[in-house]
Design goal:
mainly alpha, 66 residues, elongated
């Protein structure tokens, strides 16, 4: 018979699985140059996967509200 702790743990597991399924996937390779300005994208940023903008251009993009 499941107790409150077991039910809470099951709830946390389901919630985590749901959140992870909705998280963006970074399965595409990153670019080496920014699509907007042509500057090099640092290797540390490229390691994330799916990166297309340098830090400065990404900041502008996010400030515009996408």
């Amino acid at each position: 018979m499941a107790d409150d702790a077991d039910r809470a743990n099951d709830y946390v597991d389901l919630t985590l699985a749901h959140c992870l399924s909705r998280a963006p996937k970074f399965d595409k390779p990153s670019l080496t140059e920014c699509l907007e300005c042509g500057e090099d994208i640092p290797a540390r940023r490229q390691a994330v996967g799916g990166v297309t903008l340098c830090v400065d251009c990404q900041s502008v993009f996010e400030k515009r509200g996408r």
